Amino acid sequence: MASADKQLPPPKKDQVYVDVSALNGGWVTLPEKLFVVGADPDSTKTGKSSHPKQGSGGRERIVFDLGIKRDMSQYADGMQDHLSKRQPIINLPDTKASLENGGLDSTKDVDFVMLSHTHWDHIGMPADYPNAKFVVGSGTLHTVTNGAPHYPASMFDKDPLPLDRTTEFPPAPGSASKDLACAESQQTSHTWQQISTINHAIDFFGDGSVYIVDAPGHLQGHMNLLARLSSEKWAYLGGDCCHDSRIITGEKEIAIYDDGHGGTRSVHSNLPLAKDTIAMIQEFIRVNEEKVEWIIAHDKGWAEKNQSRFFPGKL
Which residues touch 94 (CB under 8 Å, ≥6 apart)? Predict the structure, then answer.
C-alpha cells in the first residue's frame, strides 16, 4: 500500500466532480515499427484519434484535443507528404460532428479547448469553436512558428490557433520551456503544484476537479489532463505520452529508428524527457492503484472496448 501522502487527495466536503466522455477525432494509420521495439516491420495499425470531452460540474465544458481536420487541404503544404504516408486516414466523424451527434453545438457549447500539443492529428479545426478559449502548454506558440526537432515550421499550419483567444500555461519550474515561453501577458495566472507523485500540476478551476499535468518530451508544450470523476475514481488523459498502451504497462519500449539522414530518432522530439514522463505516469498509476483509469490518444483497443463511453456516454 502506498503512503497516504503520495496518494491522490480525498474529496472536500463540497467537492466538484466532472463527467468525461471520449470523442471520435478520426482514424490514422501508423506503422507499428515507429512506436515500439520488437514490432513486425510490416505491421501497421489504424488507431483512433480519441479526444476526451470533459465537463466540470455542469459549469463549463472542455474539449481536450481536436483530432484530425475533416478538410485535409487545410493542412500546411509541408505536411502533405507526411499525410500521404499515413493513409488510410478517416477524418469523419470529427470532434465537431461527434459533439453534434451527442446534442452539443461546438460553436456555442464549448468553453475551453485544450490541446495536449499541436501535431497535425490533434489540432483539428479551431474555427469550429469560435467562442471557446484555447489553452496550450508552455512554448507551444513558439513551436508553431519556429518548428521543433523532426517537425519543421513548414509542417505547422500558418494560423493554427486563434491568437486573440489563446493563452499558454506558464513554464513548469526547471523546465526548458522557460526559454520558449510566450510573453507573460499571454500566460494564464495559474501556478504549478504537486499532486500525488506528480510534481508539476495545475488546478485549473481551483476546486480540485481538473488538473493539467506537465508532460514534456513528445513535443514542446505537451500536457496531460487529470480529472476527478467521483470520490474514488479519476481519469488520466495521456495524449501522446506514448502511442502504444504496452509502453505504459512496461511490455514494450519506445522504438528508435533511422532518421533518413545518417542518424536515429524516435517519434518524440526529446526522447529522454519522454521517457521521464512515461516513468512519472507509471509511478502515478502504481501509487494510486485502482483509482485511476488512464487513456492515451491512439489506443484503438481501448476505443473498440469502450464504444458506450463515447459522447454522449461517459467514463
Answer: 24, 25, 26, 66, 67, 68, 69, 70, 124, 125
The C-alpha atoms of residue 210 and residue 28 are separated, in whole angstroms, by: 29
pLDDT tens digits, 298-310: 888 899 999 999 9
Continuous segment of H or E residues that includes residue 237? strand 233-237
Which band of pLDDT confidence, cut at 50, 70 and 90, is reported for residue 29? confident
Q: In the chain, where are the structural domains located?
A: 4-309
Helix ranges, the chain (H): 80-84, 95-101, 120-123, 140-146, 245-249, 271-288, 300-305
Closest among 58, 76, 71 to 18, alpha carbons compared: 58
In the predicted model, what is the mean pLDDT of the chain? 89
Neighbours of 140 (CB within 10 A): 28
Mean of pLDDT values over 63-81: 93
- Position 48 scores a pLDDT of 44
Contact (CB, 8 A) for 164 and 126: no
- With beta carbons less than 8 A apart as the criterion, state whether 295 and 236 touch: yes
* Paired sense of beta strands 18-21 and 53-56, if any: antiparallel
| pLDDT, greater one: 307 or 40 | 307
Tell whether pTM > 0.90. yes
Please name the residue that has the C-alpha cell 519550474. 173
Cell numbers of 75, please?
Answer: 493542412
Looking at residue 208, what is its pLDDT?
95
In the Cβ-directed half-sphere of 194, how many Cα atoms lie within 13 Å?
8
Domain 4-309 CATH class label: alpha beta
Cβ(283)–Cβ(197) below 8 Å: yes
